[in-house]
Amino acid sequence: MKFGKHFKRQKVPEWVEAYMDYNALKRILREIVLFKQRKQPATPLRTFQRRLSLHRSFGGLTVPASNPPSERDIEDQVITVNSSPGESSMQCYRTDFLKQSKEGGDIEVKFFRKLDEELNKVNTFYKDKVEELMNEASSLDRQMDALVALRIKVENPDANGSSLKTYSTNTATTELSPSDDLNEDGNSGKGHSTQCDDIPKRHKKRRIGHPSHMTCSVGMCRQEVNGCRQDPLEVLEHVKIHKPLETPISTLKGVFRDSKDVELRFKKEELRKVEERLRLVFIEFYQKLRLIKLFSFMNLSAFSKILKKYEKITSQRAARSYMEMVDNSYLGSSDEVTSLLERVEATFVEHFADSNRREGMKSLRPRPKKERHKVTFFSGFFSGCSAALVVAVVLRIETKNLMDREEGARYMENIFPLYSFFGYAILHMLTYAANIYFWRRYRINYPFIFGFKQGTELGYREVFLVSTGLAVLALGSFLVNLYLDLGSKTRNFKTFTELVPLSLVTVVLIIIFCPFNILYSSSRFFFIRCLFHCICAPLYKVTLPDFFLADHLTSQVQAIRSLELYICYYGLGEYSQRQNKCHRHGVYNVFYFIVAIIPYWMRFLQCLRRLCEEGDAVHGFNGLKYFLTIVAVLVRTACELKKGHAWLVLAFISSAIATIMNTYWDIVVDWGLLRRHSRNFYLRDKLVISHKSVYFAAMILNVVLRLAWMQLVLEFKLRSLHKMAVTTIVSCLEILRRGIWSFFRLENEHLNNVGRYRAFKSVPHPFSFYDEGNDDDNSEKDD
User: Fold this and answer.
1) What is the C-alpha R_g of the chain?
2) Which of 340, 435, 529, 742 has the greatest count of CB atoms below 10 A from its CB?
3) Where are the alpha helices (DSSP H) in 156-267?
């Protein structure tokens, strides 16, 4: 694989603009090649490159690495590199090209200016990120101080300053280097009599934000501060447990409490929760370190590669001089990240993996997900089976003239809505699989945006496999239902045939809620958790996966009504009479209203929660949008059940207002398009797709599909289609519209992250620190 493609694949998507612009430098080198070709028009490109290679080999250009720079011929010197202090004590690098007077020299000057610009940009970004990581490491040090002290206090509730042993002041410092196995007398540290010999290993702590060393147990030894011994357990006197309002119980408590922080209770359950939260903080911090280290390595490789290309094209030696400057820069000489990686690994293994390095590194470095050939095979197999089953179902209906008979038409009115639920779900999963494919193609970091655990996210092949597998189950059950109901030998089992859809729903629910680690369990549990958060809104903190799922549920109103039909059809015994008379039940009609507004109501409550937490008026307007949609759905449902011109007019007006507001919100707010002063005409400044026509087509299609929603209100008389068929088609179009919306919604979210260089999720720290003298005004919280 060429380095350019490898470099592009290894980039952190949110940091793309901070990397060296390798392609721009290659374009400048192509200008040099074209200039040389114009000077030698009769020389083919391959012959020209071969001559350059021979001239490089036999002209003394391949200088052995052992030759010192001082032995180079001064006449062959191409560039001089200079550095000067810039902003924030950052060195600013500038290269002077010494052969500017030669033909084509202005292009090479342009190359080195661009190279300097990229080096300064990469250096500045790298230093800023390293400083952020060092500050976070210092914060983690304080968190570990509190954790180790809490462990001691939980295991020994009577431990306090008065019960601690008093140690002599001439005792060696409690901070020891891991390599210091011998003391000053030459004796082994383990054999020497010190006050720290009997401390359990799990209570010793490595410093993270400082050079690697070991400290004695907090609570068993005392730290030396300004020549005096300080009881490390005193840290617990200025610590509270930080509990973000993420669960229903914490939310309800937070309503009646001014502070989110609670006092320590020194319970084992409290210690366990703190350890779990701090463990996640360490894993996320370690991933940050790995990404910034990869950033440094890939940029150093890019500088080396582009300079080699320059030497190959121009036959001039400049790589060694310039790479010396790169290696001496902060990007090439800084070792803070490597030291932090080592210290975080040691701390995590010791405190969160019981000193088992293999298990600890499994948590810190999860294995990347591997593509499996069997997934591709079964996806193709199930898709072929689905196509064959669709043909079989159509032929069965046509050969039996099912729609021409009154009994057959009534049968389809009863059975088809039950199976349409699976059709909506399958179509939704297929659109999701297509979205994943295009998200990956355009390097939209959907696993980070959704918060998937590394290595557990599903690819488009896996989602396509699940959707085609469900299609085989649904179509196979429908074909069995048709065969048993229409077959001459199975007419006596009509009651049994009505139970086939119920059996299929039962099987699907068992698979979804299966507690065993099979069939993509992590993704199933993630879906169940997000669905539960949506149902319990606004008691849970609203995250992007939660409101994203709730938005998708608003496009599945007909599928939710199909579930209601299942309850009525089988719960009230309608299936035994083979007649769907659910609308004659008052309770069913009441829930027919309620079910239609449940997804919009969930989104409305989520907007209120975000408005209260963030105080952003945008969430208030978004909530108003969903409230108007709820009104439109209620009026439209009343019009569907009660009929009448008055209800039709009200339904048309409310639906038109909701459609206009939803369309505007989709395009302007969710997609970020229609910017009047954008570099791209009426789009936005940054675009993932290079073809701008795609965005205009998506906007027009969104408007058209939004208007198709009005068909359910106006009920145009389409003689060639049954009313049920029209409802099904419009519902499928709404699902397709939601699939298109999903791609551009996540693209806009990704570009917002890119603009802020936000490549990590924020994990709240378990402890919050405060000053004893002023708890409220001068509180210091590690969030």
Assistant:
1) 34
2) 340
3) 248-255
- Token pair of 714 as six digits: 């106006």
Residue 382 lies inside a defined structural domain of this protein: yes
Cα atoms in the Cβ-side hemisphere of radius 13 Å centred on 337:
25
**What is the dihedral sign for C-alpha 72, 77, 79, 85?**
positive
Phi, then psi, of 97 in degrees rounded to 5: -90, 125
175 located within any domain: no
- Which pLDDT score, from 0 to 100, does residue 314 have? 85
d(CA 485, CA 412): 11
DSSP label at 493?
G
**Is the predicted pLDDT of residue 694 greater than 90, yes or no?**
yes
**What is the per-residue pLDDT for 227?**
43
Angle between helices 357-364 and 336-352 (to 10 degrees): 120
Give the integer Cα–Cα distance in Å for 493 and 501.
15
The stretch 662-670 carries a mean pLDDT of: 94
Residues 456 and 330 both lie in one domain? no
- Is beta strand 767-769 parallel, antiparallel or unpaired with respect to 228-230? unpaired
Length of the chain: 783
Q: Is 578 left (phi over 0), alpha (psi -120 to 50) or beta?
A: left
User: Which DSSP category does 519 fall into?
Assistant: S
- Residues 551 and 557: their CA atoms lie apart, in Å, by 11
What contacts 265, CB < 8 A, 6 or more positions away? Answer: none
Domain boundaries, position 380: 376-755
Q: Do 733 and 708 touch, CB atoms closer than 8 A?
A: yes
Residues 337 and 403 in one domain: no
588 and 721 inside one domain:
yes
Cut 0.85: pTM above it: no
400 and 498, same domain (yes or no): yes
Alpha-carbon distance of 221 to 230, in angstroms, equals 9
Query: Is 42 buried (19+), middle (13-18) or exposed (0-12) by CB count in 10 A?
Result: exposed
